[in-house]
């Protein structure tokens, strides 16, 4: 029980970061999150985000893809699509989940992407396909906010035809 009581205090301490001296840090107009871009790179992720202790942090469970091709054999890889297709499906599910909570993709500050090796790529993750899907949702003119992010290749997911699972953390604007 002590761990459960300590965790909120720890989160508050971690996220209650005093000011920032980075020239690239820009507070967003609709929220008080400070987003730190990568130094010397235009790769579409952040190196860090600062969240005030007074903000509400929302942790979403991992989302997996839905069927993208209902005409394909049920439960087949063709039913779920390639990495890009699955990434778009997963991010659409996350977007719907966020909207149901009164949030948007622009409120996402942290992402973990779990990518399974694609059989069509000799078991290597299709990072380029993941990025093609990801950049449809983040760093766009309509939604310029980027999250800090990790992308990891893993051995597998619950369904052997899933190539992508993504979990995100969002901050409710004050």
UniProtKB/TrEMBL annotation:
A GO-annotated cellular component: cytosol
Leader sequence segment: 1-18
GO molecular function, one term: deaminase activity
Pfam families: Ribonuc_L-PSP
UniProt cross-references to PROSITE patterns, sorted A to Z: PROKAR_LIPOPROTEIN, UPF0076
CDD domains assigned to the protein according to its UniProt record, in alphabetical order: YjgF_YER057c_UK114_like_3
Gene3D superfamilies according to UniProt: RutC-like
TM region(s), chain numbering: none
Keyword DNA-binding found: no
UniProt keyword terms in alphabetical order: Signal
Family label: Belongs to the RutC family.
Name assigned to this protein: Enamine deaminase RidA, house cleaning of reactive enamine intermediates, YjgF/YER057c/UK114 family
Species annotation: Marisediminitalea aggregata
């Amino acid at each position: 029980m002590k761990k459960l009581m300590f965790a909120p205090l720890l989160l508050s301490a971690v996220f209650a970061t005093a000011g920032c001296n980075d020239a690239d840090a820009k507070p967003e107009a609709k929220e008080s999150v400070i987003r730190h871009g990568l130094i010397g790179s235009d790769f579409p992720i952040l190196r860090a985000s600062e969240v005030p202790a007074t903000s509400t942090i929302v942790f979403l469970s991992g989302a997996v893809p839905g069927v993208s091709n209902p005409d394909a054999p049920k439960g087949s890889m063709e039913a779920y699509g390639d990495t890009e297709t699955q990434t778009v499906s997963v991010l659409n599910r996350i977007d719907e989940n966020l909207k149901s909570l009164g949030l948007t993709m622009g409120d996402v500050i942290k992402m973990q992407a779990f990518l399974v090796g694609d059989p069509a790529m000799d078991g290597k993750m299709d990072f380029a396909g993941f990025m093609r899907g990801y950049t449809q949702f983040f760093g766009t003119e309509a939604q310029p906010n980027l999250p800090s992010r990790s992308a990891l290749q893993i051995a597998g997911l619950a369904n052997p035809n899933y190539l992508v699972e993504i979990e995100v953390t969002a901050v409710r604007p004050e």
